[in-house]
Backbone:
């Protein structure tokens, strides 16, 4: 079994991220299952960047502890990561830049000294290309054929022209050849290529592609980590698919533009993090009150205020569930991995338009910026089977015959037929004030109650169509983990390593935080022996939800709020301790 | 042909205080829609919150009554989704020059084809008379017992410097001129703002109809050339004042068109909608296979 974790570390500004994704791509092309995870500070130059890439011939779901190949572009990387290097691992560094003392690593660890700087000079490349040399050197350690990297570089830099491709090929080939000719004892962890047809995708890309497939027509996005990837992918494909993407003056403008575009009939999206979402809050209520469909992507990172902008947390659960004054229906979905992000984004657009309300996709930095392999077939079949549903959006000819059209007609299922401006016969006013069926402001007590009830009926109408939470693993397992969102990835990883040790556990993964799947969660809780809630925040926001909706208290919880995601090892240890209790 | 009666709402009527300047603006807007012969279902009135922002309730066109200070971005979204619509923004001085000033600046710079009508009563009407960004320096009233120490914002100069391509001032006491300004503003392809002096008879006891009658003059009667940007700034500087006048002094308030410019609009420059408005484009059956392949 191959399970290789590679890490490149160095100063920000040295293309660490590009190199990391390149390594993920190598593993992907070799047919491995891949997961990568990046840590970087909130600055552009200086500071430490670390990119972990893990590849395995077995399915994997997250990063893990331990580094098999450490590429250290500076001494700082050695200092920070030396204790993570596994037995029989290897370190790659340039001895002219980084001094490594004999006692710093155990003798089983292979030291691969590569004159990265000198090689860049020799091939006539810029000194910033040491990472390209390093990637060639890394490949040489675990694989025999340079061809895979040659093909990737040609594909990736294809648009930039022959010269750029050649420069990159020269640099990485020189690194590859250097290791092939100089590394004396062979590296023990070799990779065998498999025939898998995977693609490599981050949840940010998955959200963007899902939105594009779902018919996105308008997006107004003010940049903020961790949703910048969504914006980039949409912008790059905007002209192909006829999407208008604007960078507004602030998030308040962004969400109001999206509301305006949606009111006029265009499928619209905004994406932000907690800080930008804070600015959007009043307008979220506006979308609900005017019953304008809207999809909002909220990428969590540690708060409050600026917090730790480039790190991860699941601390906005309560915030998105309750944001804005008053009571109004909203749907909140937390995808657990890139594939789910793709699917749920498409679903979100249909739900928003069918039920004429805001749908929030709750994601986080860990999910958005990590890449994982997904079988090509999985995404393409989801894309193929997707159908756009626009609910009760009226066609021109239906509106034209109306004599007394009421935008907010009080109908049984709460979903009033919707006209859009430009349609003759559909004239009406969308009001932020409480209103009557025509949209005219109203402070009448009966009307108020009718309209509130009508809006909430839409949620009741949605509930039968919302799938129950996913339940994985053995029914008789002594422990049931309950969690939501990105923790799915390390939990899956923990489950597979526990399974290897013969320990079966069960995992209830909640995707819809609102409407909350009360019955399904309650019934699983009831027939579980021990329950363990895992979440990436301090106060147990999700655990509180379970108690609130089901009345059940859980046996135990595992929480983390240091800006880092869970590691499967932490979950494994915790489960084992719980089993002993 | 669109007639006034096509714009009448039968189930409600304006509830502004009797004598409020908002009535004049309301009538002028309807007159302008009629004189432009716009189909009511192709007009969208987008407002914020305030006495003035209630106006869309009482005109039978499409309407969107949003949040305080935020009608501008809603209108921008509507226009980008369907540039075939005539989109008119309605707000008070608090709405547009206070809470929503940032949006005003950026919409002006983009030169999106909107007409913005600011009902400038130099007061917060709906919240019962607190001072606004355009309240005259030195003013005091029940809500503000101490004289105001801030210099008022100059909406005309602000709009000019932000890049608006049609900048005008109207007066709710002159419906003929106001109708003309709205008509011109809507006809203008680009960002048009009409700062309309709109006396609040209930809370602003200084800037009354008669106070304005004694001070307003028409730019076109004094040979102002609206294509001259520098002259436009000079005229903008005439009012509001940055200091309290002596008893025997009297300011002059220019009205009419300060500035006009031809510049490509935001929606014209947005490639994706050059062939057809977004809402007329199909979003069905998009093939994303090439994008998925790129990730392999
Ligand atoms: C976010 C927010 N803050 C404050 C208010 C309260 N509010 C309502 S209208 C208004 C000011 C109205 O003044 P203006 O915009 O000049 O309109 P007018 O009533 O004078 O026509 C304020 C402060 C609000 N509705 N929303
Ligand atoms: S308070 Fe002033 S602005 Fe509001 S309706 Fe009355 S007169 Fe008009
Ligand atoms: Mg006012």
Residues:
């Amino acid at each position: 079994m191959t399970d290789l974790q590679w890490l490149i570390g160095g100063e920000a500004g040295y293309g660490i991220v590009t190199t990391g994704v390149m390594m993920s791509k190598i593993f992907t092309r070799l047919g491995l299952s891949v997961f990568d995870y990046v840590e970087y500070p909130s600055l552009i130059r200086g500071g430490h960047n670390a990119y972990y890439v893990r590849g395995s011939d077995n399915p994997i779901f997250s990063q893990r502890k331990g580094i098999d190949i450490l590429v250290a572009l500076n001494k700082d990387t050695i200092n920070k990561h030396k204790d993570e290097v596994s037995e029989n691992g290897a370190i790659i560094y340039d001895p002219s830049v980084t001094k490594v003392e004999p006692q710093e690593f155990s003798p089983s660890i292979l030291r691969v000294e590569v004159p990265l700087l000198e090689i860049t000079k020799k091939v006539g490349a810029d000194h910033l290309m040491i990472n390209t040399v390093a990637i060639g050197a890394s490949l040489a350690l675990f694989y025999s054929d340079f061809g895979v990297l040659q093909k990737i570089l040609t594909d990736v830099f294809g648009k930039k022209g022959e010269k750029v491709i050649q420069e990159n090929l020269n640099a990485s080939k020189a690194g590859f050849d250097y290791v092939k000719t100089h590394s004396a004892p062979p590296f023990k962890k070799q990779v065998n290529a498999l025939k898998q047809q995977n693609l490599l995708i981050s949840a940010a890309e998955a959200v963007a592609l899902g939105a594009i497939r779902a018919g996105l027509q308008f997006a107004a996005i003010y940049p903020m980590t961790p949703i910048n990837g969504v914006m980039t992918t949409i912008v790059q494909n905007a002209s192909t698919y006829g999407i208008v993407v604007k960078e507004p003056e602030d998030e308040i403008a962004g969400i109001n533009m999206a509301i305006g575009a949606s009111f006029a009939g265009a499928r619209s999206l905004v994406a932000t993090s907690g800080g930008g979402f804070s600015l959007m809050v009043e307008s979220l209520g506006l979308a609900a009150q005017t019953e304008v469909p809207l999809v909002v992507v909220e990428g969590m990172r540690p708060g409050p205020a600026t917090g730790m902008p480039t790190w991860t947390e699941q601390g906005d659960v309560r915030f998105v569930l309750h944001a804005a004054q008053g009571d109004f229906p909203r749907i909140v979905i937390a995808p657990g991995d890139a594939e789910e992000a793709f699917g749920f984004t498409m679903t979100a657009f249909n739900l928003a338009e069918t039920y004429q309300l805001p749908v929030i996709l709750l994601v986080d930095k860990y999910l958005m910026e990590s890449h994982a392999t997904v079988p090509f077939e999985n995404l393409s079949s989801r894309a193929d089977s997707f159908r756009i549903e626009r609910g009760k959006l009226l066609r021109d000819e239906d509106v034209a015959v109306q004599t007394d059209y009421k935008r907010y007609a009080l109908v049984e299922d709460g979903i009033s037929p919707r006209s859009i401006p430009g349609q003759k016969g559909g004239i009406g006013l969308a009001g932020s004030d409480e209103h009557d069926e025509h949209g005219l402001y109203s402070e009448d007590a009966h009307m108020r109650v009718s309209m509130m009830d009508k809006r909430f009926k839409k949620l009741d109408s949605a509930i039968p169509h919302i799938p129950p939470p996913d339940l994985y693993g053995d029914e008789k397992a002594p422990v049931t983990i309950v969690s939501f969102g990105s923790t799915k990835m390390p939990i899956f990883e923990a489950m597979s390593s526990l399974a290897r040790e013969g320990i079966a556990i069960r995992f209830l993964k909640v995707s819809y935080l609102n409407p909350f799947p009360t019955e399904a969660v309650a019934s699983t809780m009831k027939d579980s022996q021990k329950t363990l809630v895992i979440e990436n925040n301090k106060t147990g926001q999700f655990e509180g939800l379970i108690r609130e909706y089901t009345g059940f208290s859980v046996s135990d919880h595992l929480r983390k709020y240091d800006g880092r995601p869970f590691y499967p090892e932490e979950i494994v240890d915790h489960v084992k301790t719980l089993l002993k209790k | 042909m669109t007639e006034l009666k096509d714009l009448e709402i039968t189930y409600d009527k304006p509830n502004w205080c009797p004598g409020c300047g908002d009535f004049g603006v309301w009538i002028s807007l309807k007159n302008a829609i009629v004189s432009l012969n716009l189909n009511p279902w192709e007009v969208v009135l987008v407002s914020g919150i305030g006495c003035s922002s209630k106006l869309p309730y009482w005109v039978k066109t499409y309407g969107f009554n949003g949040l305080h200070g935020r009608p501008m971005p809603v209108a921008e979204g509507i226009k980008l989704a369907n540039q075939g619509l005539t989109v008119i923004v309605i707000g008070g001085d608090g709405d547009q020059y206070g809470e929503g000033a940032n949006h005003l600046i950026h919409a002006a710079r983009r030169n999106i084809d909107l007409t913005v009508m600011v009902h400038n009563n130099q007061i917060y009407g709906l919240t019962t008379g607190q001072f606004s960004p355009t309240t005259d320096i030195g003013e005091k009233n029940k809500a503000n017992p101490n004289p105001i120490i801030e210099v008022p914002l100059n909406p005309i100069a602000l709009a000019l410097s932000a890049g608006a391509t049609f900048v005008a001032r109207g007066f709710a006491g002159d419906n003929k001129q106001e109708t003309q300004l709205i008509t011109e503003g809507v006809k203008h392809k680009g960002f048009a703002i009409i700062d309309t002096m709109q006396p609040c008879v209930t809370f602003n006891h200084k800037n009354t109809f008669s106070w304005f009658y004694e001070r307003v003059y028409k730019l076109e009667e004094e040979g102002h050339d609206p294509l001259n940007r520098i002259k436009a700034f000079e005229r903008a500087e005439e009012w509001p004042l940055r200091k309290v006048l002596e008893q025997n002094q009297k300011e002059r308030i220019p009205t009419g068109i300060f500035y006009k410019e031809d510049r490509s609009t935001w929606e014209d420059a947005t490639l994706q909608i050059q062939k057809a408005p977004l809402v007329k484009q199909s979003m069905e059956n998009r093939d994303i296979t090439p994008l998925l392949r790129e990730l392999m």
Q: What stands out?
A: Residues B 49-52, 68, 92-95, 119, 121, 123-127, 132 surround thiamine diphosphate (ligand 1) (CB under 6 Å). The CA atoms of residues 4 and 55 of chain A lie 5 Å apart.
